[in-house]
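Milestone 3.1: sequence recovery, worked example.
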């Protein structure tokens, strides 16, 4: 598997995880009717996962463009 493809896959997985963690954390807080520290921790984890996913996505795009430039 090419590095750009692997980074794209990692990016998609992390974005899905971040959305699910955020959704579950928000839903749990709504069901309990409180904003607990665990809810804030979950949202922090989701934000970090999303940031890493975006960095992986950008790196994948850069690698793809560089590979295309070398092939030409």
């Amino acid at each position: 598997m090419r590095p750009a493809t692997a980074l794209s896959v990692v990016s998609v997985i992390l974005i899905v995880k971040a959305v699910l963690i955020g959704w579950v954390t928000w839903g749990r807080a709504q069901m309990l009717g409180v904003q607990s520290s665990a809810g804030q921790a979950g949202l922090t984890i989701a934000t970090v996962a999303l940031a890493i996913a975006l960095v992986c996505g950008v790196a994948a795009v850069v690698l793809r463009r560089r590979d295309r430039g070398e092939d030409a």
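The CA atoms of residues 4 and 60 lie 4 Å apart. The chain has a mean pLDDT of 83.
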